[in-house]
Amino acid sequence: MGREIRIALIMGGGVSLGTFSGGALAEVVRLLARTGATREDGEKIEPKIDVMAGASAGSLTLAILFAELLRGGNPQAIRDSMSAAWVDGVGVDYLEDPDKQLLPEDLENHQTPSLVSDRPIRRLAKRYLPEAGVDASHASRLLADEVYVSFSVANLNGVDVRAPWQVIRRRTPDAPDHPAYRDALVTTFHDDRARFVYRRSANQGGIDPASQATRLRARGDPSAWAKFRDAAIASGAFPFAFAPVALERKKEEYGPVWPQTLADAGITTFPFTYMDGGSFRNEPLKEGIELAKLRDREGEDAFERVFIFIDPNVSGSHAVRALSFTDPLALRTDYAQDGKPEKQELARRGYADKLVAFAGRYLPVVAGQAAFRDWIKAEKTNSRVEWNEELERVLCQMLKALTPSTQSANALQNLLHAMYATKLLHRTRRRPRGREIASVIENDRAQLRESLPAGELPQDPTARNAVLDVLLALRNVAGLRNKRKLNLVAITPYATRTDPLPLAGNFFANFGGFFKRDWREHDFRIGGLAAWEVLTADIGSANPLVTGVKAPFTDPPRLAGDAGYAGVESSVRDLFEEKLHDHIENIASALEVPDVIDDIVASKVIGGIIKGLHAPHTVVRHILVRLSSRGLNKRYELRPNKTGFRAEPTTDEKGNLVIETVVSVHYDKEAPPRRRYWFEGPHVHNKAGKPTLRLARDILLELDQDVQDFTLEEGAKSWYEAADTRRFLPIRWNGKKSEDPVVVDTRALKDVF
Q1: pLDDT-based confidence at residue 245 (cuts at 50, 70, 90)
Q2: CA atoms of 509 and 27, how far apart (whole Å)
Q3: Residue 553 has pLDDT above 90, yes or no
Q4: Cα–Cα dist 685/688, whole Å
Q5: Mind giving me the DSSP string for 552-597?
Q6: How far apart are CA 24 and CA 337, in angstroms?
Q7: CB 692 within 8 A of CB 728
Q8: Which of 9, 192, 253, 553 is least enclosed, having the fewest CB within 10 Å?
Q9: How many other C-beta atoms can be found within 10 angstroms of the C-beta atom of residue 298?
């Protein structure tokens, strides 16, 4: 037997990018399941998976893994199950298979508040998570004897949380102690979770009081397995795409926060309705840590805890300096079926355009703030734990020779008692009794005493307890009670590379992979490669978790063509656009849009959606270019390219004639380095391999001698970077730096995500 490594699996969402997570998870199992796995220093390890915390698509993936490990599935069987579920089990491209087709077959009979059908998801869940349970007689040795599983969900009903430590009572003749005046702080929480616990040796159902988790038995508990399955589906019910899911919850699962209105009516179960838990908690690390605390009751030397986090959504920086809603102009582009620009025009931006641009920036700003918050907090905790350990060693040496007086020892105990009373009040939402507080303090004393090196504490019992109480008080003040240093491992497309591993399905809000099986297969394999690269590499200051294991394949996966809406099969695209049109038309009718125009409204909306789908991986910076000159007159125009428009002189705010256009600089982070940046625009020409603006006089005659060329210098990458910093950009005029009689003004105009 080697050193026990307890594995907590934390999985974020990703919609169709669940293929990446499924591939990564299958590779994690393959690496951990090797007999006699060793680290770089030769130490043998005995990994045990005992905690699983999932959000969104990650919940169903973890649920399938748990069931497969319980059945005793080997790594290849688990990989096959993950592939069958995520690569072959669901998509928009299954035109002749309604069991796998996400798009609703008949909208007239489609009664759930969703744009897609949950039929394929439910079919997969029933296949891998049957209500009858599974045969666990040959459970995998990777699965611990006690396993906690949690799925993040968003509670649409909401649960009120009150603050019992602040109570207001109005003692007046008109309002004597009325309940309406008792709660000073009340708020409604929607961030929720559904917990389950499996114990190999137990055969008991119901709710586990310590963890508020539903007990899960391998066999003979159909209601618990149905709840387990439905909770995993609810966690992945992406808003508006999938229908919300109702779950029958028990009072014991909520404890003191069970709704008071239900308690007053004597109701102990209620069907709360849930949607995607990733809406609030897409990286449920905090929940994983809480579950690990329930498991890690032994001393720290008995095992090692590792948190493995899998998330395909990590995609580098999204910071910008140029904000589109401050700009006066917008470049509108129509795309052909192949995704290339077909027509472009420049338009003045009104308040509505700017409002839409502001909303487009607001949404990723809000969503981005939830990402990695738990991870940043965990790293801070790691530093504080290290400082606290060093401080404890120093204090033990200092206090060892001191003999505290009875008065000071009692004062310290009273202070500790008050600390624990407040902490228990916050945790349980009720005032604890003195005996309960004393029991928790004594338990913490015992754990702290066992964790300190032999000989560090005084021999005298009174002095020893005083030292322990000082250390416990410090831990509580620092917020480090029952906290240990966390070993965090993140498996993402960015994990081990400067440039991320390319994903095919990360467009259309990560629904892109559902359009094509080849893309799902590609992202599944990329997930496996990312997991192998991380777990066999040095992680921070630590050695690799596993060594001596070959990569899952020799060559990294490559796409046969570019991923994006232009690469979708025409038959799949036609079906998707038809269903989307019908959805929007029905929504317009529900909003009481007159029937005579609802078809027009649907067509316009679809046009905007399709336009956005054509450049899935591209970030665009639009640059305003303004040409002015004393000699400029109405006969001058910028010569358009085949997608452009006539740009004639206009009068600026100072009364001068100017010609304005927009140059768009595109950045595709998924493309090879040489093809990552490029210029586009209605007046950008390619002259001898260089992007050029052409100022022409008498443009109808197309006389070359009347054309002045302005070359965009320093390359598209420099222009892209300059757009963020708002600096001026270089243009060369007929081989010279631009100067009078033509003045060139360039500035950042717009950013589009």
Answers
A1: very high
A2: 26
A3: no
A4: 10
A5: S-SSPP--SS--SGGGS-HHHHHHHHHHHHHHHHHHHHHTT--HHH
A6: 34
A7: no
A8: 553
A9: 11
- Of 125 and 170, the one with more pLDDT: 125
pLDDT confidence bin for 386, thresholds 50/70/90: low
Asked if 643 and 344 touch (Cβ cutoff 8 Å), the reply is yes
Distance from chain centroid for Cα 608: 26
User: Tokens 């649920």 appear where?
Assistant: 63
Please determine, for residue 742, whether its predicted confidence score (pLDDT) is greater than 70.
Answer: no
Q: What angle do CA 199, 21, 100 make, to 5 degrees?
A: 95
Residue reference for tokens 């909003």: 591
176 pLDDT band, cuts 50/70/90, is low
Tokens 């989307």, located at residue = 580
Identify which of 530, 514, 646 has the alpha carbon closest to the alpha carbon of residue 101. 514
Q: 């964790």: which residue's tokens?
A: 451
The torsion of the CA quartet 742, 624, 563, 13, rounded to 10 degrees, works out to 160
pLDDT digits 0-9 by tens, 18-64:
999 999 999 999 999 875 556 556 667 789 999 999 999 999 999 99
SS (H, E, C) 370-415: HCCHHHHHHHHHHHHHHHHHHHHHHHHHHHHCCCCCHHHHHHHHHH
Q: Tokens 């009720």 label which residue?
A: 430
| Cα atoms in the 13 Å half-sphere on the side-chain side of 567 | 19
Q: Which residues contact 242 (CB under 8 A, 6 or more apart)?
A: 114, 116, 118, 121, 236, 275, 276
User: Which two tokens mark 41?
Assistant: 């220093």
CA proximity to 310, closest of 632, 82, 106: 82
> Between the CA of residue 676 and those of 324, 627, 717, what are the distances in Å?
22, 28, 8
- 88-124 tens-digit pLDDT: 999 999 999 999 999 998 888 888 899 999 999 999 9
Read off the pLDDT of each residue in 382-404 and give the average, rounded to a whole number. 63
> What confidence score (pLDDT) does residue 82 get?
96
DSSP string, 408-461: HHHHHHHHHHHHHHHHHHHHHSSPPPHHHHHHHHHHHHHHHHHHSPTT-S-SSH
